[in-house]
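Section 5.1 Outputs to date
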Amino acid sequence: MIARALVLIAALLAAPVSAQQAGWPDLDKLLFGTMTASGRAEASYWMPNAEDPASANRAVGIVYEAISGSAGNTTIAVGLYVRTTQGWQFAGRVENLFGHSPRDHVFTPTHVELTTDMPGPTDPRCCPTQATRWRIDLNTRAVARLN
């Protein structure tokens, strides 16, 4: 249980500075409202296709929500977002992407790739160390594990 708490703390410390401070909209409201049952999350990540809010038009949102009564376990919810004339809109959920500490996202015209940490063969469930690369098709939201 202590190791699980340490992993969660490390993930929260590694999370990027609040995007709202950098000129983005209220991402907590957007992400938690579209991808959580409780309206709260343990951690969230916003991975846009451009660092400049004025240039970005697609993003991946990832939310880790606590599982009620589970002693510190979380679920992962992943969604695609597009910017329209009305602002950022939820385009749909992405299923079958797993892991902790999402990072290194790269957008192309057809897909986005990103890395998460998954349990290696000898890792305890609490402490994943295996860097795993994922590809999300931007049209179908289908996920492929690349390694």
